[in-house]
Specification:
The complex is a heterotrimer of chains A (252), B (219) and C (409). By secondary structure, chain A is an alpha/beta fold. Helix content of chain A is 37%, strand content 29%. Chain C has a five-stranded parallel beta sheet with strand order 3-2-1-4-7, with helices on both faces. Classes of the chains: A alpha/beta (252), B alpha/beta (219), C alpha/beta (409). At the A-B interface, helix 3 of A face helix 1, strand 8, strand 9 and helix 6 of B.
Chain lengths: 252, 219, 409
């Protein structure tokens, strides 16, 4: 029996959690640690902090936030955004992160995935893919928080990532994210069928039903929520109760 | 305050464990020092990652003998995730590697048949339950509800020879795997109590409590 | 010692605003059809603390203005013009970008007006621009008239504007400004509502406190005196072989006609607190707007000015003429609206401002019937010596930048 994991995705810029649409825009939502604690208390399964502007400014800001978070949040914490080297990964793990999320650097030097998996264990390494639809059943991977094309086909890239030894894949639909109109189910389904590592679906959840649909139509292992919870559309207990009532297993 | 030594051997996210211990009122001591470890009230062996690397790091720091010494003292000892796997005799991960041998048996890649939805590594919240009725009495899981969800992240599992040493089992794919072991003062959790929310913190509290029981008895 | 020559009558000393990243070389809005070659530009004002008037205006926006009262005034204004008999009651000029999308949609769906959106066609619609434009109507539930002027003449004027003024966007800006009132006159509508006040970006301070656009921007007495691409209409007819009738799209409504019909042009930004990024969110949520997939060349942004292929060249020419590229404009706006810090703006400007817009370069050259050689010749003629100098490798570099890494810094 498989329990769908509910993950809170917090995109961070400086001291704020922000929420964009199509990975664009910096509307402020609140304090990262306050929100993380809130979601933890409400029963979230996992938290992901993404530094939304790290690539843009060539810096890393989240380590302080993670240090504070793991004093009061006792569920898995992942961190991503601007992770460029094994040294960055080391710092991130030392600051308390359980998992490290990589995108831009993985595209630039795929070797970092295999190196990191070997040194730190593949369960720590999550590859993030920002996918933009380019036609029926075709998606291109983007980097730099959805700013630059790569020319990589998502489905091919995801297979390569698995071969490199990644532990999990988080796939975000750029077209859907922030719109609250639902996931790109074709994208998630294809990615999830392509690999045997867990896939986290991200981007588009606006209604509880979107989560139900995701579980019924794809083999995603987890779902990352942002707008749905940051804008208080539903609380985490509401979401879990409702999803469980529809025969989908989740940790209560 | 109860002093809990957390073994520092260059592996694993120890901050979460020390933070968890702090939050439940214990005093965590992150160390690989002989004195500090042997004088602590309890010892935790954390760990994530590869078995071979874990064992190598222990050996490089001369910690294998120290662990055995601590276990012999009868004080509570807890292995978490890789820390639990290393309690066994050997692992087949990346060729055979010798473990601590505190629990007879070996570590293998999860042998269960997985459906489309079930992936490897096993990354999920999943239920633990006692393999036999009443098995959790007088263990760290005494006050934990049966079928509680805890957080797993692993691809390998322990296969203890002695079934009575299996503390809990968990269903994944088409069957059960061993999710916790216990023998005398040794407990091992395949899952991460420090990442399992309030429920996990409660297990760690039981771990702290168990030091008091010993103190009480030795009086 | 010789004073370095400054083109366009720009200030000799280059300074950067202490709060945002804009420089004192930024020109204020002009009456485009008076724009002629080599004329002196009025620029943004910096006060004695080194802060630009756009930043000061934004401070006022935050603290000094009673927005409830301003909205009250808006309600009274709209009450005066609102119609329920099937006729339009407000003209909203725009292209379906985030600002006009917000303006039109909110007027209709929150304030109960009956807007007609009017669009002066971009030179060359980008795919995303066209999609957003049609979504504006299909998802935003709005009526629209798309007005496309004679393409051949428009291209010719753009070519002239590029070579005479290094301002290829000029004919477009002229059209955009006059179409609102012109359509109002034709449809018997009195109220024209634009989006943001140019004061947001640093026009004359006293223009901030009135809700209306000066008629000089969209009305002339004598069309023959208008200059398009730096050439007067009279000369275009005499020397370039055109007829008066060719200029129908560009001839603004006469002032007395505007007066007679009671046409007023307002800025919604006077009445509602303007935040361009919030307009983006609003547009996505209400009019099917989508940001671009890639960031725009010359900047980091994906939601600002994305509908015309010529657009990047507008910004490239401002870079050459004033040393100000697109990233600087985008960053300055976001700093003022508290989305990014000044340090971040400096980094963004440094990183993206000088990026050459390759994507549509060939199309642009074809559009203005210019060879690559001719393009660079014109560009080079417009590099003011007080802004640009060659480095030891013979490459043109800015002498001063906000990041303080200019040749003279």
């Amino acid at each position: 029996m498989h329990k769908l994991r509910l993950i809170a995705r917090l995109d961070v810029k400086n001291e704020f959690v922000i929420k964009g649409i199509h990975l664009e825009g910096l509307r402020k939502i609140g304090n990262p640690n306050v929100l993380a604690k809130k979601y933890y208390d409400e029963g979230i399964d996992e938290i992901v902090f993404m530094d939304a502007v790290a690539s843009l400014y060539g810096r890393n800001n989240l380590f302080n936030i993670i240090e504070q978070a793991c004093k009061e949040v006792f569920v898995p914490i992942a961190i991503g955004g601007g992770i460029r080297s094994l040294h960055d990964i080391e710092l991130a793990l030392k600051s308390g992160a359980d998992k490290i999320v990589l995108n831009t650097q993985a595209v630039k030097t795929p070797q970092i995935i295999s190196d990191a998996s070997r040194v730190y264990g593949s369960q720590c390494i999550v590859a993030s893919i920002e996918a933009k639809s380019k036609g029926i059943n075709k998606w291109e991977a983007y980097v730099d928080n959805g700013r630059e094309e790569t020319g990589l086909d998502v489905i091919e890239w995801v297979k390569k990532l698995e071969d490199l030894g990644v532990g999990e894949i988080m796939v975000t639909s750029i077209d859907q994210e922030g719109t609250k109109k639902g996931f790109d189910l074709d994208l998630i389904d294809q990615v999830s069928n392509m690999v045997s590592v867990p896939v986290i679906a991200s981007g588009g959840a606006g209604k509880i039903n979107h989560i139900v649909e995701l579980k019924k139509k794809t083999t995603a292992s987890a779902v990352a929520l942002a707008s749905l919870i940051h804008y208080n559309i539903h609380s985490i207990p509401e979401i879990k109760e409702s999803v469980i009532a529809q025969d989908i297993h989740m940790r209560l | 305050m109860i002093k809990v030594a957390v073994l520092d051997y260059g592996i694993g996210n120890v901050r979460s464990i020390t933070n968890a211990l702090t939050s439940i009122g214990a005093e965590p001591i992150l160390t690989s020092d002989n004195e500090l470890i042997l004088s602590a009230d309890a010892l935790i062996l954390p760990g994530v990652g590869a078995f071979a690397k874990g064992m190598q790091n222990l050996k490089d720091r001369n910690l294998v003998g120290l662990i055995h010494q601590f276990v012999d003292s009868g004080k509570p000892f807890l292995g978490i995730c890789l820390g639990m796997q290393m309690l066994l005799e050997e692992s087949e991960e990346f060729g055979f590697n010798k473990g601590l041998g505190l629990i007879k048996g070996k570590v293998v890649k999860l042998p269960l048949k997985l459906g489309n939805e079930e992936k490897l590594p096993h990354v999920s919240w999943n239920e633990i339950s006692p393999p036999s009725h009443g098995r959790w009495n007088n263990t760290l899981l005494e006050s934990t509800a049966i079928s509680s969800d805890v957080y797993f992240i692993h691809s390998y599992v322990a296969l203890p020879n002695d079934q009575s040493e299996v503390l809990s089992h968990t269903f994944y794919g088409d069957g059960y795997f061993c999710s916790a072991v216990q023998k005398d003062n040794i407990t091992g959790f395949q899952f991460h109590p420090e990442k399992s929310g309030a429920l996990g913190l409660n297990m760690l509290s039981e771990f702290i409590e168990s030091t008091r029981k010993i103190n009480y008895e030795s009086n | 010692m010789n004073q370095t020559e400054t083109f366009f009558g720009l200030p000799a000393e280059v300074k950067f605003c202490k709060k945002c990243v804009i420089s004192n070389q930024r020109p204020s809005s002009t009456v485009e059809f008076e724009n002629e070659k080599g004329e002196k530009k009025e620029v943004i004002n910096f006060d004695e603390h080194g802060v630009c008037s756009a930043c000061r205006y934004n401070e006022e926006k935050d603290q000094g203005i009673d927005w409830n009262q301003r909205e009250e005034t808006l309600l009274k204004l709209l009450d005066k013009f609102r119609r329920n008999d099937g006729r339009y009651d407000v003209i909203v000029p725009g292209s379906g970008g985030k600002d006009s999308a917000y303006t039109a949609h909110i007027l209709k769906h929150k304030y109960g007006m009956n807007p007609l959106t009017v669009t002066w066609a971009p030179h060359l619609y980008t795919d995303i621009g066209w999609k957003n434009f049609t979504n504006w109507m299909h998802e935003g539930a709005l009526d629209n008239i798309l007005y496309t002027p004679d393409g051949k003449l428009h291209r010719y004027l753009t070519k002239l504007a590029f070579h005479n003024l290094l301002h290829p966007f000029q004919p477009f800006i002229i059209g955009q400004r006059i179409i609102g009132p012109a359509m109002a006159a034709r449809f018997g509508v009195e109220l024209v509502m634009y989006g943001e006040n140019q004061a947001e970006y640093g026009n004359k301070v006293d223009e901030n406190n009135i809700p209306t656009m000066d008629t000089k921007f969209f009305s002339v007495d004598n069309p023959m005196k208008m200059k398009l691409g730096g050439v007067s209409v009279a000369d275009l007819i005499d020397q370039h072989g055109y007829k008066m009738n060719d200029f129908t799209p560009y001839i603004p409504t006469k002032p007395e006609v505007l007066k007679e019909k009671g046409i007023q042009v307002h800025y919604l930004g006077y009445y509602l607190k303007w935040d361009p990024q919030e307009c983006y969110y609003y547009a996505v949520e209400n009019t099917g707007f989508q940001a671009n997939t890639e960031r725009t060349e010359g900047s980091y942004s994906k939601y600002s000015s994305i509908d015309d292929k010529i657009d990047p060249f507008h910004y490239y020419t401002t870079l050459i003429k004033f040393g100000i590229g697109r990233a600087t404009y985008d960053a300055a706006q976001e700093i003022r609206n508290d989305k990014i810090t000044r340090e971040e703006g400096v980094v963004l400007a440094q990183k993206f401002d000088q990026e050459f817009p390759k994507r549509f370069f060939q199309e642009f050259l074809e559009y203005i019937d210019t060879t690559e050689e001719e393009f660079w010749e014109t560009i080079e003629k417009n590099r003011s010596p007080h802004l640009w100098a060659k480095d030891i490798n013979g490459e043109w570099k800015l002498r001063h930048t906000a990041a303080r890494d200019g040749l003279d810094d």
